[in-house]
Each structure stands twice: as structure tokens, then as C-alpha cells.
TrEMBL record:
Enzyme type, top EC level: transferase
Subunit structure: Homotrimer.
InterPro entries, per the entry: CblAdoTrfase-like (IPR016030), CblAdoTrfase-like_sf (IPR036451), PduO-typ (IPR029499)
EC numbers for this chain: 2.5.1.17
Organism: Lysinibacillus odysseyi 34hs-1 = NBRC 100172
Residue stretches making up the Cobalamin adenosyltransferase-like domain: 3-167
Keywords: ATP-binding, Cobalamin biosynthesis, Nucleotide-binding, Transferase
Protein name: Corrinoid adenosyltransferase
Gene3D superfamilies associated with the record: Cobalamin adenosyltransferase-like
Gene Ontology process terms (BP): cobalamin biosynthetic process
Recorded GO MF terms: ATP binding; corrinoid adenosyltransferase activity
PANTHER family listed in its UniProt record: CORRINOID ADENOSYLTRANSFERASE, CORRINOID ADENOSYLTRANSFERASE MMAB
Reaction equations catalysed: 2 cob(II)alamin + reduced [electron-transfer flavoprotein] + 2 ATP = 2 adenosylcob(III)alamin + 2 triphosphate + oxidized [electron-transfer flavoprotein] + 3 H(+); 2 cob(II)yrinate a,c diamide + reduced [electron-transfer flavoprotein] + 2 ATP = 2 adenosylcob(III)yrinate a,c-diamide + 2 triphosphate + oxidized [electron-transfer flavoprotein] + 3 H(+)
Pfam family, any one: Cob_adeno_trans
Length: 186
């Protein structure tokens, strides 16, 4: 099997149930989810398997869920079954709460960074936010989009923030607070 098809050489791409321009809002949204998935994969290569076993398990599950959500956005079939459900959102909320208990209390905004893995998770967080914004645009332009994907991406960005903080904390690195800000978290 060849990896190239040449069917996209005219600026169109196939989606589930049709073809659209490669810069269509639908392609932008699920393409950014694919980018996010790759960044999460990179973060996973930077995490010690024993020290971060729990986070690595989370991230692997998240990678599968991102494939589901991207597929849901790429589907324009009249009869469709969405793969991403509300259940993983509840799991993310539980994990966010658990990770938030482990990290020191947050008072101010913090600067992204710390360890290589922590910094990569912060990058993933910002890409998750972009994917969410693009999904909101898609939902506004096209009504037949699963709202679960947007909600999942919103919660995922919170999870990635919490995970980045815990990664740095377990490695003995303190958050660097944004010094010109005031206390915003109480």
C-alpha cells in the first residue's frame, strides 16, 4: 500500500462521507486535534515510566479519545454514531482534582515551562485551547457537530495544565509565578 494517493493534489481532502477543501473549518479543527495528539506523544517520551506511570496511563487514554473526537468532527454521514462520549470528561475531572491536590496551591498565573515534559504539556494545553476554539467556530458554522468534542477539549486543557504542574512538582521544580499579576486563585 502506498502512503500517497494524489487525491489531495487539487486542495481537497476526503472526510467520512464526503470531500471538502483542505482549509475547511472541519479540517482545521480535526487537524489541530491531530497536532495535539502528536504533542502529547512527544510529552510521553519525556516522562519517566515509573515516576509518571499514572500520567502516562492518562495520556495514552487521551490519545485514543482524541482520535475518537477527531473522527467525530470528520464525519459528515447522515447516519452517524459519535465515538467520543461524556464518560471521559468525568474521568478527566477526577484526574484534575487528584492532580490538583498533589501540586502546591495556586495563587497567581504561572509561566509555562519547567522540565522538558512539563513544558511540552504546557504546549499541548495551548494547542488544546486552539483546537477548542476551532471546534467552536465549526459548531457555529455547521450545526451537525457533536458538542461533546468541544466540552472534552475544554476539560482536557485543564487536565494538561494540572499534569504539567505535577510533573514539575515531582521533579522538584517550582512554578514560576507571573510577577506582574495579582492573586487570582483563592
Amino acid at each position: 500500500m502506498k502512503l500517497y494517493t494524489k487525491t489531495g493534489d487539487t486542495g481537497k481532502t476526503s472526510i467520512i462521507g464526503g470531500r471538502v477543501d483542505k482549509d475547511h473549518a472541519r479540517v482545521e479543527a480535526y487537524g489541530t486535534i491531530d497536532e495535539l495528539n502528536s504533542i502529547i506523544g512527544k510529552a510521553m517520551t519525556e516522562l519517566d515510566k515509573k515516576l509518571f506511570e499514572d500520567i502516562l496511563q492518562d495520556l495514552e487514554a487521551i490519545q485514543h479519545e482524541l482520535f475518537d473526537g477527531g473522527g467525530d468532527l470528520a464525519n459528515v454521514m447522515k447516519e452517524r454514531h459519535y465515538k467520543l462520549t461524556e464518560a471521559p470528561i468525568g474521568v478527566l475531572e477526577e484526574r484534575i482534582d487528584k492532580l490538583s491536590e498533589e501540586a502546591p496551591p495556586l495563587k497567581r498565573f504561572i509561566l509555562p515551562g519547567g522540565s522538558p515534559a512539563g513544558a511540552t504539556l504546557h504546549i499541548a494545553r495551548t494547542v488544546a485551547r486552539r483546537a477548542e476554539r476551532q471546534t467552536v467556530t465549526l459548531m457555529r458554522e455547521i450545526e451537525d457537530v457533536s458538542p461533546v468534542v468541544q466540552k472534552y477539549l475544554n476539560r482536557l486543557s485543564d487536565y494538561l495544565f494540572a499534569a504539567a504542574r505535577v510533573v514539575n512538582f515531582r521533579l522538584g521544580l517550582k512554578d514560576i509565578e507571573y510577577i506582574r499579576g495579582s492573586d487570582v486563585f483563592k
